[in-house]
Amino acid sequence: MALPRRRLGSGGPEITPVGFGAWAIGGGGYAFGWGGQDDTASISAIHRAIELGVEWVDTAAIYGLGRSEEVVGHALAALPASERPLVFTKCGMVWAPEQPTAFPRRLLAPESIRRECEASLARLGVEAIDLYQFHWPDDTGVPIEESWGAMLRLREEGKVRWCGVSNFDVALLERCERVGHVDSLQPPFSLINRAAAAELLPWCVAHGTGVIVYSPMQSGLLTDSFSAERVAAMDADDWRLGSPDFTSPRVERNLALRDALRPVAARHGVSVAAAAVAWALSFGAVTGAIVGARSPAQVEGWFPAGRLTLTPADLDEIAAAVASSAAGSGPSRPPAPES
User: Strands 184-186 and 160-166, how do they pair?
Assistant: First the structure.
């Protein structure tokens, strides 16, 4: 069975509810790395996702300092043109090659955006980027209006098909929208990080902006096999070791919430990971979820979320588990549909 599709905002492409997230396949060796990763396994994971019906891949220039885009490019090149997924990528995090582990600059100067776009096109081996996104707001003083104008010019030139942003707040979205329509927003969103549901999702609904959420499994915490032992065994350059969500006291609360998902997942015959992704997709504003994988087996674990609809009783049970675990913050249940 093919996955259903949802329209990305008012004028974007139709996409499957789940997309392949390529952050982790960038590997390690930089500030936001995930430790060692085999490129052959990464390509196999991408191909497995496409075989199952996933129709888009999300990556970024910063993932592995270009490595993730290169791996995605190799995966695309091995496929017939008719089977290639849409490719989404991001710019605006600029690194110094001589200091790979230093934190990148958040730079959205027009000339830098153009350079990054050309480099991403080359690494991906495509003629146009289907969805190009600002990864984070600029922190160098460039007015966002200038940055967004540069993005829209790339679309006019045919280098980009749709334009989006990631990690923007409502104030920045408003400023971009006055220059030209924002096709999509990419915020973090999971059962643990629920903040986007308060203001961002309603804004996107009101303005015809699609939403593709990232980290719906909270970087692995909301999966069946995650444990404190897994944290202890992580590579030294895995960024998660420095995240408060992976250390006490949060990690215990987060894993308690994960455990509360097990009965819901069992009722539907799916993994905890799939149930967690389905929860994010249950919010009507969410067009799709970016779900990472480092192997075909991980893809097979979360893929059923693309067709899973949680019942009102499931959502009530999950909201109660959020309250009892005290994990994370933000709305714990999608708003009830208007009568």
Answer: parallel
